[in-house]
Amino acid sequence: xxxxxxxxxxxxxxxxxxxxxxxxxxxxxxxxxxxxxxxxxxxxxxxxxxxxxxxxxxxxxxxxxxxxxxxxxxxxxxxxxxxxxxxxxxxxxxxxxxxxxxxxxxxxxxxxxxxxxxxxxxxxxxxxxxxxxxxxxxxxxxxxxxxxxxxxxxxxxxxxxxxxxxxxxxxxxxxxxxxxxxxxxxxxxxxxxxxxxxxxxxxxxxxxxxxxxxxxxxxxxxxxxxx
Length: 227
Fold this sequence. Notes:
about 25% helix, 5 helices
């Protein structure tokens, strides 16, 4: 996979090495432990997100208490799911100054999607599982020092390009309702919201990109939107 560079608007005061070219490329053998460490260390929320996070948790509590079919306790795979047959992983790196690379971003794609975070009862899950060519984007992470630098955009674009080249027709993903910057990024790239579900104390926003023309498409209404 080819990598690309672009101008970046990154907050002042970051470490000098991130002013170097940021490269997005396929994850190399042996890099997975470092990528997993980044997944664990980069949290999804900012301090100012606290009120929205608490509001989300309250909505999830109400959904659980009401027996809402969109609520699921955990992301354990539902019996009958088939394992993905293809997967790909990418990293965004900068020179570390010690002859190697420092990972500053990651993402991955699996396909066909297994949708382990979505309750089996919702219509959207059944639609996506029955449709050929649906892949799922996950583990998009970017370190704080390169936020607003276009890294997330380039990682998603790499995933979209790979999906198109491998014959997938649809790319889906989920994020949580307080993650407004992520939702705005996906919307800018053509993803459309298809519905919402609950996973434990989280409210998940499900988005979809039609890879045939690069834009989203109206989806099934089996998953309601809750405000």
